[in-house]
Design the sequence.
């Protein structure tokens, strides 16, 4: 509630004081908008790299549990798990977050029934040039660099 000063000793704020505070808050918000945008872009690339690692781990676990090879094929805007014969429980193609691309297009990582893989590196980039590498070693170990 806005209370205007009418006499000495009465507590409240004036419209001028309120306008000054609103102007300061507006100026601070203008300086924070670019930082928030950069934070969102970095969040998206980190989340995409974690999603890829999760999918790789899932393919490795499925290969061991079902005793058949599982592969993940990477494209610029997504990735897909597959196996032969087809597994009806495989999730649909996963898309990357907006503004995030997979630079290493055409990479196929295959996990064998013993947990090993053919290895490979998946490079993920965003519009600001930030890069993450998801590495898969021949032993089946998965890491983010």
Sequence:
């Amino acid at each position: 509630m806005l209370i205007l000063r009418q006499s000495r000793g009465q507590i409240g704020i004036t419209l001028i004081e309120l306008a000054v505070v609103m102007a300061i808050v507006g100026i601070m918000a203008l300086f924070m908008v670019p930082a928030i945008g950069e934070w969102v872009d970095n969040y998206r690339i980190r989340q995409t790299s974690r999603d890829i690692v999760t999918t790789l781990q899932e393919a490795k676990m499925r290969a061991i549990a079902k005793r058949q090879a599982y592969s993940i094929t990477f494209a610029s805007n997504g990735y897909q798990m597959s196996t032969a014969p087809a597994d009806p429980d495989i999730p649909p193609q996963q898309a990357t977050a907006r503004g995030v691309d997979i630079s290493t297009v055409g990479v196929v990582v295959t996990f064998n029934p013993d947990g090993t893989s053919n290895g490979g590196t998946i490079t993920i980039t965003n519009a600001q040039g930030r890069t993450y590498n998801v590495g898969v070693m021949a032993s089946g170990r998965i890491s983010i660099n």
User: Anything to note?
Assistant: The two ends are 54 Å apart (CA to CA). The chain is about 35% helix and 25% strand. The helical segments are 15-66.
